[in-house]
Amino acid sequence: MATIREKRRGVWEVRVFTGRDADGKPTQVSRTVQGTKRDAMRVAAQFDSAPSTSGAGRTVAEMLEAWVELNDPSWAESTRRDQRSRVRKVAADRIGALGVARISVADVERWHLRLRKAGIGEAAIRGRHMVLRAALEQGVRWGWVQNNVAGHARLRTAKRSPRSAMTADDVRAVLAVAAQVDPAAELALRIAAVTGARRAELAALKWCDLDGDRLTIDSSIAVRRDPESFGTPESIDAPTKTANDRTVTIDQTTVQTIVEQRRVREAVSPYMFSIDERPPNPDRIGWWWKRVRELAGIDEHWRLHDLRHWATTTAISSGHDVRTVAGRLGHANAAMTASICLAVHRALARCVARQRPAQSDSHTLHHDALLARETLSKIGTEMPLPLSLDPPI
């Protein structure tokens, strides 16, 4: 039965016994009510009619396990792998042994501190925290806990250096070297730069996906790593976050490159970048990129994914509508496309400021920043897709 006590004038605490924990100690939940005693009695009646006993004696690790069991069927393969990994790491910490009815904001923030002292980065801490927060939110819905303490815990903001975009010269240098490493590598990186295709999407490409100058890119491909085979990745046909196909127009040089490679390689595999009947190992494409980046002598911090960002910024800075570019890239939300372009714009604005040290006039720098913004955000339809890597005549 719920009990009521007045903490101070107009503030009441309602408590109810919820059972005993694994050590046999009694557990309880409480709620603070502001108002009259009648308001507190109404809350007490709710406790008595539907007491939160299902969370009694359960640990954070058990709650995480229940959260995974509920959500696992709806997760994409890569999401399932990542979330399970985070859950295992949270459950292995001492916070996993705490009772869900006893966990506090202080417990969560002390857990963050332990992770930092162990050398865990802020991004990894945020990932594990979001798992705990989601599981606690489910606990609130199920009546296991009264509030989500993880939602009140503070997270540090990871300091990141803003990324710029590769230049067209960088991309051309990469393609020139890739042709010497493997003609298939040149084709993969060219398609990545022209269409903005992701690594798994490149691995899923088949020769039959090309129809004239239109290429169909399948986003319903996931990368699965089997722990029993030492984490060897493989591509599987499974729903991803967007789980859709998109058809993009490509330039004639890219079309001709695909046609030429098809004559040589189609008898080997139906996939553009495989050496047998199965989809290729996605790490094969990743290795191509690392090798070509080294031989081309470009910045070692450029990732394969930066070719996708290059395609984004080049399309928008050439005057294409953000929504059109978002559809070409397979972004579910055009805001993601715009955010990539905005990050590059900020980097460009800093470059302008550094290149004009003698002109410290704030009005001049403000004008340069506005000009860069207008160039990158200009919307128009007079410049047709696709992008082209061919040097201007």
Description of the structure:
- This protein has 393 residues and is an alpha+beta fold.
- The chain contains 14 helices and eight strands.
- The strands form three sheets. Strands 1-2-3 form a three-stranded antiparallel beta sheet, covered by helices on one side. It has a three-stranded antiparallel beta sheet with strand order 4-5-8.
- A hairpin with a 2-residue loop joins strand 1 and strand 2.
- The N and C termini lie far apart (84 Å).
Strand content: 5-15%
Query: What is the C-alpha radius of gyration, as a whole number of Å?
Result: 28 Å
The strand order across the widest sheet is 1-2-3
What share of the residues lie within helices? 40-55%
Span of the ends, CA to CA: 84 Å
Report the structural category: alpha+beta
- In the predicted model, the low-confidence regions spanning at least 5 consecutive residues are 354-393
Largest sheet: 3 strands, antiparallel
Please trace the helix and strand order, writing H or E for each element.
EEEHHHHHHHHEEEEEHHHHHH
Mean pLDDT: 79
Number of helices: 14
Categorize the overall geometry.
Answer: elongated
For the secondary structure, the number of strands is 8
